[in-house]
Design brief:
There is one protein chain. With about 325 residues, the chain is an alpha/beta fold. About 35% of the residues lie in helices and about 25% in strands. Strand 15 and strand 16 (about 265-270) form a beta hairpin. It contains eleven helices and 16 strands. Monomer. One of its GO terms (cellular component) is nucleus. It holds the Pfam family PfkB. InterPro entries: Adenokinase, Carboh/pur_kinase_PfkB_CS, PfkB_dom, Ribokinase-like.
Length: about 325
């Protein structure tokens, strides 16, 4: 039975600034139509440019925070999901995130800093919602420290949890915090779950990724290579600290079947078909898939049920602007 605090999530909390833009805007800032990067100096003026010249929406963001909100929404037991990250101290964007987390039922315990304001992420939607380019200005999120995990309140939440989820993006911020959580999970015989998140993380932060990989019980990724089946099987076979669990690897592939390796066996699961005309915005679809998967996984469901949960959440999100959610899930859908 799912209970309060069962899932603990760490990530980079951001406020998403979303807009439909043209190709010229992407070219102006050297951005690709379907990619995720960290902002450089040349991008810092982009956020004001975006707000001034396009019709924008503001929604809570950051990959792991999206996943936390979706999982909490599906589990529907208040404070089943805990979330940590760093925001600005007493700034308007941070207050919005705190309010949204409370409304969503997530137990958010943000570290706060005076050094920078709450982070933002430009979500640049093109091709009628089929593509989105993410450019994240981490700002305050970049100041998260592992000391926060050792504060009495957060340490209590960590010990209460049975499952831990982290996107790959904090590798650029605090890999020591990721290892702290991963080692706790291994030592306590709990499940540690991670997302590769973006290709640049594997390329630029290869050593940090290698350090944490032995602790990963469930790994999410999306297709960027050919011969995905072999890659999934290879990742699943890498050594693990906690030998009681075999590594589960889940690789999404857009509209193609999702690849899952579980106990050394590879299976493929179809996604829910959707007409292009029904797609509003693909932003957050991958985060929602993980949230839907985890909502079932923390309840001890079989992998097939977890995939159905992920498919339901991802299919819902791409039919809405940003990673936004209706008041309640549709309980007539077979995922339930």
């Amino acid at each position: 039975m799912t209970r309060e605090g069962v899932l603990f999530v760490y990530g980079n909390p951001l406020l998403d600034i979303s807009a439909d833009v043209n190709e010229e805007f992407l070219k102006k800032y050297d951005l690709e139509p379907n990619n995720a990067i960290l902002a450089e100096d040349k991008h810092k003026v982009m956020y004001d440019d975006l707000v001034a010249n396009f019709n924008v929406d503001f929604t809570p963001g950051g990959a792991a925070q999206n996943t936390a909100r979706v999982a909490q929404w599906l589990i529907a037991i208040p404070k089943s999901v805990s979330y940590v990250g760093c925001i600005g101290n007493d700034d308007k964007y941070g207050k919005i995130l705190e309010q949204k987390a409370e409304i969503a039922g997530v137990c958010a315990r943000y570290m706060k800093t005076d050094k920078e304001p709450t982070g933002t992420c430009a979500v640049l939607v093109t091709d009628s919602g089929k593509n989105r380019s993410l450019c994240a200005y981490l700002a305050a999120a970049n100041h998260y420290k592992s000391d926060h995990l050792e504060t009495p309140e957060v340490d209590k939440l960590m010990r209460l949890a049975q499952y831990y989820y982290i996107s790959g993006f904090p590798l650029t911020v605090s890999p020591e915090s990721m290892l702290h959580i991963a080692k706790h999970a291994a030592n306590e015989n709990k499940k540690f779950i991670m997302n590769l998140s973006a290709p640049f993380l594997c390329e630029v932060f290869k050593q940090q990724m290698n350090d944490i990989m032995p602790y990963v019980d469930v790994l999410f990724g999306n297709e960027t290579e050919t011969d995905i089946d072999k890659i999934a099987m290879k990742i699943a076979s890498w050594p693990k600290q906690n030998g009681r669990y075999g590594r589960i690897v889940v690789i999404t592939h857009g509209s193609e079947p999702t690849i899952v390796v579980d106990n050394g066996v590879l299976k493929k699961y179809p996604v829910i078909h959707i007409e292009d005309s029904h797609i509003v915005d693909t932003n957050g679809a991958g985060d929602a898939f993980v949230g839907g998967f985890l909502a079932r996984f923390v309840q001890g469901e079989e992998i097939e049920a977890c995939i159905r949960g992920g498919n339901y959440a991802a299919n819902l999100i791409i039919q809405r602007p940003g990673c936004s959610l209706p008041e309640k899930p549709d309980c007539t859908v077979s995922v339930f």
